[in-house]
Amino acid sequence: MATYLASIDVMLKPLVNDPQGLAVRDGLGHLGFDSVQSVRVGKRIEMTVDAADRATADAAVTEMCQKLLANPVIEDFTFKIAKVAPADD
């Protein structure tokens, strides 16, 4: 069994209002960063997963995102998976 590192990004869908993003944009404007046009705020989740192969790890992470990590009504998710090198003992 191999270990994989999954980096998951969850963002609000483009048509969903993002009050946190608006607050960040306004705060940056008050600090003099007037070139910022828009801000969207999301979350990043990193986890290690043990799986027989990459396809199995992909399927597990997809299911986790669909069932818990993202709200499919208002959020989209993307992820990258990389195999973790075994630690030297």
What does this structure look like?
There is one protein chain. This protein is of the alpha+beta class. It has helices at 19-30, 54-69; strands at 2-12, 43-51, 75-83. The chain has a domain at 2-16 and 42-83: Phosphoribosylformylglycinamidine synthase subunit PurS (Mth169, Chain: A), CATH 3.30.1280.10. The protein has 2 helices and 3 strands. A 3-stranded antiparallel beta sheet has the order 2-1-3, with helices on one face.
Sheet-strand content, in percent, reads 25-35%
Q: Which CATH first-tier class of the domain at 2-16 and 42-83 would you pick?
A: Alpha Beta
Structural class: alpha+beta
Report the span from N to C terminus. Answer: 17 Å
Provide the residue-averaged pLDDT.
Answer: 96
Q: Helix content range of the residues, please? A: 25-40%
State the total count of DSSP E strands: 3
| CATH homology superfamily of the domain at 2-16 and 42-83 | Phosphoribosylformylglycinamidine synthase subunit PurS
> Which radius of gyration do the C-alpha atoms yield?
17 Å
* Major sheet attributes: 3 strands, antiparallel
- How large is the count of helical segments? 2
SSE string, helix = H, strand = E? EHEHE
Low-confidence stretches: none
Q: Strand order, biggest sheet? A: 2-1-3
Tertiary shape: elongated
Q: Which fold name corresponds to the CATH topology of the domain at 2-16 and 42-83?
A: Mth169, Chain: A
Q: Can you name the CATH architecture of the domain at 2-16 and 42-83?
A: 2-Layer Sandwich
